[in-house]
């Protein structure tokens, strides 16, 4: 907070407790935001757990990475939809990962009870998040919600992320190759900030670094895996996510917001 105030002296800065791996925590947080009776102009979904060596489950009974990296964001965004629709050109940004291209959505074993592997779980959760970004934009356009949905990823930013610890092969790999295939946390944040604030950013697009393997480099359009654009699987995943979280999204047409996002892009 002390670093924010000198940059925006008139801003009201506050912190709220939120555990994306807990549906109860998501509901409590959303209720507090709703009680503020203020619109939400921007929501960046960026909680993450990386490559847990052993399968863990949340208090709700969900596989930990799927819950924290995807389900919690699905539930939070749904609970804040009315506040988002009240915002001025509201945006929702999902923070993905290059690993989503290795992922699959295991509709008959989403919790990976039968075949857990650390990267299998992580890549599935990130693929689910990117499918959510695309499906949210489709539904926003269909229902005239006025919400702009897009995604971004940081590449290989030199920042900490909860994972399986220093003994894990991934973290040893990062120490060895970080100097060659990584960039600073500030550079990693740039695609996310661009998606969140740039007037030129467009719905359903996916931004990231353009350097080696999209791990570093100049900002641009990132490669979206073909599975992320499978509307049929995305629709099924959406329905299952509603059942798992108990968060129901509107189906019918909703009146446009006070500040609708334009339907035509130049």
Count of domain modules: 1
Distance between the termini: 38 Å
Query: What's the number of extended β-strand segments?
Result: 5
SSE arrangement, N to C: HEHHEHEHHEEH
Tell me the quaternary state.
single chain
Q: Could you name the CATH homologous superfamily? A: NAD(P)-binding Rossmann-like Domain
Shape: globular
Which second-level CATH architecture applies? 3-Layer(aba) Sandwich
Uncertain segments: 161-166, 259-266
- In the CATH hierarchy, the third-tier topology is known as Rossmann fold
Approximately what portion of the residues adopt beta-strand conformation? 5-15%
Main-sheet strand order equals 1-2-3-4-5
| Structural class designation | alpha/beta
- CATH class, named Alpha Beta
How does the major sheet shape up? 5 strands, mixed
Describe the structure.
36% of the residues lie in helices and 8% in strands. The protein has 266 residues and is of the alpha/beta class. Strands 1-2-3-4-5 form a 5-stranded mixed beta sheet, with helices on both faces. Helix 2 packs parallel to helix 4, helix 2 packs across helix 7 and helix 4 crosses helix 7 (231-245). The protein is globular, with a radius of gyration of 18 Å. The N and C termini lie far apart (38 Å). Residues 161-166 and 259-266 have low confidence and may be disordered.
Topology diagram in text:
Blueprint: H1 23-35, E1 42-45, H2 64-79, H3 81-85, E2 91-95, H4 118-143, E3 148-152, H5 169-177, H6 185-197, E4 206-209, E5 219-221, H7 231-245
Parallel strand pairs: 1-2, 2-3, 3-4
Antiparallel strand pairs: 4-5
Helix pairs in contact: 1-2, 2-4, 2-7, 4-7
């Amino acid at each position: 907070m002390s670093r924010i105030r000198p940059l925006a002296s008139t801003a009201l800065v506050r912190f709220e407790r939120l555990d994306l791996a807990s549906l109860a925590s998501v509901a409590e947080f959303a209720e507090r935001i709703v009680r503020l009776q203020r619109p939400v102009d921007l929501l960046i979904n960026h909680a993450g757990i990386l490559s847990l060596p052993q399968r863990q489950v949340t208090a709700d009974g969900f596989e930990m990475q799927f819950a924290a990296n995807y389900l919690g964001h699905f539930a939070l965004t749904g609970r804040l939809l009315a506040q988002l629709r009240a915002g001025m050109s509201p945006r929702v940004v999902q923070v993905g990962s290059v690993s989503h291209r290795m992922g699959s959505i295991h509709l008959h074993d989403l919790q990976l009870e039968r075949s857990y592997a650390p990267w299998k779980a992580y890549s599935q959760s990130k693929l689910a998040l990117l499918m959510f970004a695309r499906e949210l934009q489709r539904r926003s356009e269909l229902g005239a919600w006025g919400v702009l949905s897009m995604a971004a990823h940081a590449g290989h930013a030199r920042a900490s992320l909860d994972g399986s610890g220093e003994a894990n092969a991934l973290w040893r790999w990062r120490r060895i190759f970080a100097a060659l295939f990584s960039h600073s946390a500030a550079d990693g944040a740039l695609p996310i900030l661009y998606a969140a604030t740039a007037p030129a950013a467009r719905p359903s697009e996916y931004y990231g670094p353009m350097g080696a393997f999209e791990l570093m480099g100049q900002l641009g359009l990132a490669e979206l895996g073909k599975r992320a654009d499978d509307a049929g699987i995305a629709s099924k995943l959406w329905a299952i996510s509603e059942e798992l979280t108990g968060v129901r999204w509107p189906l019918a047409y909703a009146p446009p917001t006070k500040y609708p996002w334009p339907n035509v892009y130049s």
